[in-house]
User: Fold these one by one.
Assistant:
Number 1:
Amino acid sequence: MSNQQSLADAAVETLAAVRAMDNGIGLDNPERHVIRDLKRNAEALIADALRRARELAYAADAIRELHTPREG
């Protein structure tokens, strides 16, 4: 049995880590702008990766339809 983390578990863990990136960072923290920018970039990367992966899944479905024999 493999101890490798599932993709779903990794996604949940990563989303939680990104969500927590700016925890405890208030308006008086000088590093707040950098940390919030890092968080925005992490969120954008995740959103882009999800969009691209979904596009690939749609493409795979379309290819499968092209090669499925039609009845009639």
Number 2:
Amino acid sequence: MDLEAYSGEHVVKALADVASSPVEDELVLASVAESLGRILARDGGCPEDLLASLHPDARRIAEEVLRASR
């Protein structure tokens, strides 16, 4: 929770790694995807290749957060 307080490429990569896992717990995926979406929205970047690499549920959540921030 509250992982969006951090920033930087290493943070985005770490969150994306977890959010792309096909075996990660749903709650963890949701928390990570929400934080990732908020970081991307705040830092003004939304790489399509990063979003495409996420677990489908995580991608949906991250995209919802990004849309809501516009």
Number 3:
Amino acid sequence: MQIQRYRLNRASGHIYRVMESPFRLEDVGESLDMIILHATPPVRGEPFPNMPEQDWIGLCFLNAELNWSFTLLNSGKSNALSSFLHYTTEREISSVLTKVTLIPQTSRRGNHWFGYAFEALPLPDVNLPQLLKRHSTLPLIDPTVDLEFSPANWDELLLRLNSQAITTQKMNSLSYDTEDLETRSKFVIWN
């Protein structure tokens, strides 16, 4: 397993994997599949000197190759984070494979940019609690980002994922229609 970082460029509509040595950006397209492990609440800040202060959400996720990965979602001058916050109220984000896509948008004045669209897909056959236990030393918040993210609580995350796996297994064995159940994503609480 490798640690990887991604940039979702809302100006160009492309997603890039950040290659560390030598530093370069590898274009991975307009969408990215991920299993989101942790999402921070929106934090106001300026982690990059060439971008104005705005709201940011840090994501820790497993990419398609199950590499530990990080990215940031930004609000820009719009309300771009609302699509993610709405997405998280409709489901438990770690129980689905999330496809994030950058979609073109245009203002009334003719300005162009890209917004976020999120789609929930069936989770691949992965035992998340066991995978997380094996990599419990890895951070849930990108340590290279200069924002005031508090450290995430591992014990609560593992407890939540274990509970969710047991509940999902029981619901599947009892043939409940899980689409009728209301599930709300909860951010990991820290001290």
